[in-house]
């Protein structure tokens, strides 16, 4: 297709989870309607569409795990399940008129920066378009990670069933089956209690035991829901209290990990109430500081693993021989189904391999030594490109929606600044600004429980660096991303007559000024 026949938009958003839909709403609020949301699946929802496994629910309170601009007074429980969160995102899509902007079934195959036309060329599974700016909102929990286990193909050939928790096979009945659950992370501790009563035998492979705290969940009463509908400020107050409590907790994770020993005592008491067997308790007791890995919430995980039809293998899965799974400690079990609850590509996000910047290298190549982005959003060498839930924007104890909304503030001001600069200009973060920001983040990381807690978690990349979490409060991050500091950016300039034409022309750079 010729360049002039391609669809061109001001902004192309990749992904339609909380980040992508939030970006779409914010663009419309900024008066921008010339944008598309590219979604590889057939519906919106992101991780809350993909993760439909039995027992799937959020571990952040409902009234905090929702957009501030789209409160939901009708959450049925204090901690919502996957169907209710997915339905909420569908309502947000309709309420804010986002359907016309959706391009469902459009998987992004490659995104290339055109340094002459100062625009992105976005190749999708349904054709190619161009955009002045790209906002990547694919999220870190979008591409499942399945370890390369020797013999797995042979297990399938022998009639065994294999799937990841984020790609649950609802057509496969687990009743009476011998099941191996691989992993003990956030998904697994919800899956195990949900399937334990129906399976014949459940073998749980646990490389590292998690810390599990009680889940203070209950139904939201009809009077509460009525009050939030009739007096919206009560819902805002509830959200504010939930937020404030979590802000006060941040210091224990980031500055004073030693105080978390009190929380460990509560977690151990939670275990002792449900698990009476000392040998099993020993397997389930972590040897690292609570908070170093994600703290999990459950009232039924420990009772489930203590049931007679559950075996806990305190080792990872290392091999499969026919229908036999083998642990690192030599434990063997005959199984019919293997379920991987082994997480996602977080520090090596696959979308990074599909983004080619100004220097002709992919974002994955630029990040080969670890992910780095200015204020968690923009990467050196990638003009007019922004990531929502980028490097060091994750949280260990609060709602990611708070961080997403902060990044949307930054995105909105970025778009405003581009408008003020006028046609034929793009913004690229200065490498020195990216490096300075990340030095400050990593310096603060040294004091955190994620660095000093004695564990190896999915927060860390291959070099042992935490490129995932934010080492501060959400209010600190909100202040840091309220506006774009033009002093941290270069203006990439196209000569007169070159911008938007696709024709080769000399290029130049100029310092951005406030």
Taking the sheet with the most strands, its summary is: 8 strands, mixed
Count of all domains: 2
- Total strands: the figure is 21
- Give the helix/strand class: alpha/beta
Shape: globular
Given this structure, which CATH class of the largest domain is correct? Alpha Beta
User: What's the architecture of the largest domain in CATH terms?
Assistant: 3-Layer(bba) Sandwich
CATH H level, superfamily name of the largest domain: FAD/NAD(P)-binding domain
Q: From the 3D structure, determine the CATH topology of the largest domain.
A: FAD/NAD(P)-binding domain
Number of helices: 15
State the share of residues found in helices, binned by percent: 25-40%
**Residue windows where pLDDT falls under 50 for at least 5 positions:** 499-508
Distance between the termini: 40 Å
Average pLDDT works out at 94
Radius of gyration: 24 Å
């Amino acid at each position: 297709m010729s360049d002039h026949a391609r669809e061109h938009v001001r902004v192309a958003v990749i992904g339609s989870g909380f980040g992508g839909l939030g970006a779409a709403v914010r663009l419309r609020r900024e008066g921008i309607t010339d944008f598309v949301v590219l979604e590889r699946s057939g519906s919106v929802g992101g991780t809350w569409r993909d993760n439909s496994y039995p027992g799937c629910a959020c571990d952040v309170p409902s009234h905090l795990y929702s957009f501030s601009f789209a409160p939901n007074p009708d959450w049925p429980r204090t901690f919502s399940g996957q169907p209710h969160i997915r339905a909420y995102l569908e309502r947000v899509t309709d309420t804010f008129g986002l359907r016309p902007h959706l391009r469902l079934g459009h998987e992004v195959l490659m995104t290339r920066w055109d340094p002459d036309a100062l625009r992105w060329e976005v190749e999708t599974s349904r054709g190619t378009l161009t955009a002045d700016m790209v906002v990547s909102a694919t999220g870190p929990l979008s591409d499942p990670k399945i370890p390369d286990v020797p013999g797995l193909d042979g297990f399938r050939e022998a009639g065994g069933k294999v799937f990841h928790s984020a790609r649950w096979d609802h057509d496969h009945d687990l009743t009476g089956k011998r099941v191996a659950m691989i992993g003990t992370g956030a998904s697994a501790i919800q899956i195990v209690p949900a399937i334990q009563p129906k399976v014949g035998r459940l073998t749980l492979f646990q490389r590292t035991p998690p810390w599990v705290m009680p889940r203070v969940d209950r139904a939201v009463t009809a009077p509460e829901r009525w009050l939030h509908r009739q007096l919206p400020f009560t819902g805002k107050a509830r959200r504010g209290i939930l937020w404030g409590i979590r802000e006060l907790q941040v210091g224990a994770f980031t500055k004073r990990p030693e105080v978390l020993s009190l929380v460990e005592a509560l977690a151990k008491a939670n275990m002792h109430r449900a698990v009476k067997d000392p040998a099993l308790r020993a397997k389930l007791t972590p040897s690292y500081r609570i908070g170093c890995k994600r703290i999990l919430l459950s009232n039924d995980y420990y009772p489930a693993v203590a049931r007679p039809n559950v075996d806990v293998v305190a080792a990872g899965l290392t091999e499969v021989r026919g229908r036999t799974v083998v642990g690192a400690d030599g434990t063997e079990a005959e199984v019919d189904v293997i379920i991987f609850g082994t997480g996602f590509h977080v520090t090596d996000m696959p979308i990074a391999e599909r983004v080619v910047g100004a220097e002709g290298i992919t974002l994955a190549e630029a990040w080969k030594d670890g992910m780095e982005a200015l204020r968690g959003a923009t990467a050196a060498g990638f003009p007019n490109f922004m990531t929502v839930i980028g490097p060091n924007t994750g949280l260990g104890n609060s709602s990611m929606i708070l961080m997403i909304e902060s990044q949307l503030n930054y995105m909105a001001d970025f778009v405003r600044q581009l408008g003020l600069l006028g046609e034929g200009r793009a913004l690229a973060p200065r490498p020195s600004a990216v490096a300075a920001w990340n030095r400050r983040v990593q310096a603060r990381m040294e004091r955190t429980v994620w660095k000093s807690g004695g564990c190896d978690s999915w927060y860390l990349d291959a070099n042992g660096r935490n490129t995932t979490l934010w080492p501060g409060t959400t209010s600190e991050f909100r202040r840091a991303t309220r506006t774009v500091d033009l002093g941290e950016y270069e203006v990439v300039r196209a000569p007169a007559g070159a911008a938007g034409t696709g024709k080769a022309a000399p290029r130049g750079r100029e310092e951005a000024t406030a």
